[in-house]
Amino acid sequence: MSWDKSETGDVSGDRQIPRRGPRDERGVLADRVLSAARSLFATQGYASTSLRNVAELAGVDVALVSYYFKNKAGLLEAALTLPAEFLADVEQASASPIEERGRAILASHLAAWEHETTGDILRSIILAAAHEPSAMERVRTIYTTRFLEVLANSLPENERRLRAGLVASQMLGLAMTRYVWRVGALADLSPEQVGDLISPVIQRYLTGPLPE
């Protein structure tokens, strides 16, 4: 069994004493636990979900859940964290020239939701937040500090919060209608068709005139 520095405990000279826990399978098992937690938080809520429920669904010992995430609050925080790739793509899109940014932002969102793994994570985060007030507050904080800050990049100081909020409302509404509820014809359109229809709206929120 191999260990890296992040998995070591006490250090004595050059000798490192490893902490208990399966190093080689850490990523695989942690992802399995997170997937189970997201599913349960989304379907039965935070209060009704125990670490043992999560462990049973993930097919692991409950001690491993505590080992990786400490407690249920830590597990919830990890389960509600937006994928790093999603945030990186949003940041990249928001750095596009302002006259092209609406389409770029929408394309990054559609790509994330169309991706099987990332889409499942985003869907479960939204559903978990709908069930649990503390989860909703956590998602709101993440969205405000990470997502809206990026969207507001280079927008006029006195307009950035409103414009970023308008874009976010469109993105969340699209996600709920097309990918969570799958309501109406919007759910059946291709990503390219959705982009053609909605990117002008996003662009107007970014650069169009605002009411006094």
Report on this model:
Strand 1 (8-12) and strand 2 form a beta hairpin. It is elongated and about 55 Å long. The chain has helices at residues 26-44, 51-58, 62-69, 72-79, 84-94, 101-114, 116-131, 133-151, 160-180, 191-207; strands at 8-12, 15-18. With 212 residues, it is mainly α. Helix 3 packs across helix 4 (72-79). Residues 1-24 have low confidence and may be disordered. The chain is built from ten helices and two strands. It folds into two domains: 5-76, Orthogonal Bundle (Arc Repressor Mutant, subunit A), CATH 1.10.10; 84-207, Orthogonal Bundle (Tetracycline Repressor, domain 2), CATH 1.10.357.10. Helix content is 67%, strand content 4%. Strands 1-2 form a two-stranded antiparallel sheet. The N and C termini lie far apart (65 Å).
How are the elements arranged and paired?
Layout: E1 8-12, E2 15-18, H1 26-44, H2 51-58, H3 62-69, H4 72-79, H5 84-94, H6 101-114, H7 116-131, H8 133-151, H9 160-180, H10 191-207
Antiparallel strand pairs: 1-2
Helix pairs in contact: 1-2, 1-4, 1-7, 2-3, 3-4, 5-6, 5-8, 6-10, 7-8, 7-9, 8-9, 9-10
